[in-house]
Design a protein that fits this description.
α2 packs across α3. The chain folds into two domains: about 20-85, 434 Repressor (Amino-terminal Domain); about 90-125, no CATH class. The chain is elongated and about 50 Å long. Strands 1-2 form a two-stranded antiparallel ribbon. The protein has helices at about 20-30, 35-40, 45-50, 60-70, 75, 85-90, 100-105, 110-125, and strands at about 90-95, 95-100. It has eight helices and two strands. A hairpin with a 2-residue loop joins β1 (about 90-95) and β2. By secondary structure, it is mostly helical.
Length: about 130
């Protein structure tokens, strides 16, 4: 898989090819192309073309795959490293506080305070 840089507007460029991402998601679940083809209502041969990049992935299929793998469509499109779907972002961490709330709160901080939060998380993870 290929990693890349951000352009001047902060948009990820050439992060992964869609075909590599969907193949990796399928392999992570130990599924065959025929299994996914059945899920999306096509043939194994057509699905294979999505994985090799010989055919563009239709929006309908993109949505089905994102829901099935519980990832965001942006992840499949290679626009982000974050695999979280909307359901994952809406997951309650404690009480009424969601994963999305935490991300938003961290992003609202200046860079120095963000670094402090990351340091604290690392400290908590390494605590015995």
């Amino acid at each position: 898989m290929r990693y890349n840089n951000l352009n001047k507007r902060g948009v990820l460029l050439n992060m992964y090819r869609i075909s590599e991402i969907i193949r990796g998601l399928r392999e992570d679940k130990d599924l065959k192309q025929a299994d996914i083809a059945k899920l999306i209502g096509t043939t194994q041969q057509q699905y294979s073309k999505y994985e090799t990049g010989d055919s563009d992935l239709p929006v309908r299929v993109l949505i089905i795959l994102a829901n099935f793998y519980e990832v965001s469509t942006d992840y499949i499109l290679g626009r982000t490293y974050c695999r979280e779907s909307v359901a994952g972002l809406n997951k309650k961490v404690i009480a009424e506080y969601t994963t999305g709330n935490i991300i938003s709160d961290i992003l609202s901080l200046n860079s120095e305070r963000r670094a402090a939060v990351i340091d604290y998380i690392s400290f908590q993870k390494n605590k015995k």
